[in-house]
Amino acid sequence: MPQTVFITGTSTGIGAAAVRLFAQHGWQVAATMRNPADAKFDDLPNVRVYALDVTDAAAAPRAIQQAHADFGSLDVLINNAGYGLVGPFESATDAQIQQQFATNMFGVFAVTRAALPILRAQQSGVIINITSVGGRTGFPMNSLYHATKFGLDGFSESLWYELAPFGIRVKVVAPGGVATDFATRSLQMTIDPANDAEPYAAQVRSVLAAFNERGGAASSPELIAEVIFGAATDGTSQLRYIAGEDAKSLLGAKSQMSEADFMAMIQKSFGV
Ligand SMILES: NC(=O)c1ccc[n+]([C@@H]2O[C@H](COP(=O)([O-])OP(=O)(O)OC[C@H]3O[C@@H](n4cnc5c(N)ncnc54)[C@H](OP(=O)(O)O)[C@@H]3O)[C@@H](O)[C@H]2O)c1
């Protein structure tokens, strides 16, 4: 019987690439997204598309149970849906903060909780949470995004212990920069960086320019999907997978430098 993977946020980017890769490997794929009309998987017969906005906690059990009933199995859950809220913390509205956490963290909690009764009953399964290099190190002007990704990283590490006795393996895939809609369509800002009346505008512009420069080093979503597929299928209990050469090199530097030196380097490279 083919294995089944359930993936959130599959309209574009890493999620869409993961759908294709698992399907090409013969997996049954529950591809979930906010708007199923966005799906581009008609050429993949073993993919079924389900509506799921991860901020709708009631929708998560419905989607998980429907996919489980349709495919007859659930082996891997990939919590991928997420976006970046960028800009000064001071300017973020309550609604922006709530939406960032509702999507990047509470959405993961809801979908994971919906899957757990199935995985626990079968005494097997892999849960892969897509965090970020920004779940292991901080960049300027990304405080709220980092709060969610550092949070997910810690959540996953603790859950690893809790679920191991039930045969469920928890994993984190932490990409560096990836060429997706993340930095364009999906990005939200807490200020308009063009507005010079904003006290943080110059700092934001400098950070965005540094990110743009780094864009050339971005990985493809297909490469990140390969890391995710490896994590799902390698049979190990490895917790963290750092995905992308930029992420490996940055976290490697962080592990070898003093905190003061590393932070001075980040300040310099972002011009803040
Ligand atoms: N690209 C990077 O540089 C990078 C680096 C590190 C980590 N990541 C992480 O990788 C994951 C995927 O991002 P990506 O790079 O593939 O960007 P992307 O192309 O913008 O994809 C993000 C996906 O998340 C979905 N999404 C957003 N809010 C949602 C919600 N409430 N419910 C369900 N789906 C929702 C989007 O759906 P819609 O089409 O409906 O908006 C889209 O399918 C994210 O968790 C992101 O934090 C990305």
From TrEMBL:
Note the InterPro entries from the entry.
NAD(P)-bd_dom_sf (IPR036291), SDR_fam (IPR002347), SDR_oxidoreductase (IPR051911)
- Matching CDD domains: 17beta-HSD-like_SDR_c
Q: Which UniProt keywords apply?
A: Oxidoreductase
Origin superkingdom: Bacteria
Please verify whether the record's keywords include Repeat.
no
Name the protein family. Belongs to the short-chain dehydrogenases/reductases (SDR) family.
Which PANTHER family does the entry link to? SHORT CHAIN DEHYDROGENASE, SHORT-CHAIN DEHYDROGENASE_REDUCTASE FAMILY PROTEIN
- The protein's name in its UniProt record: SDR family oxidoreductase
Q: Which organism is it from?
A: Hymenobacter ruricola
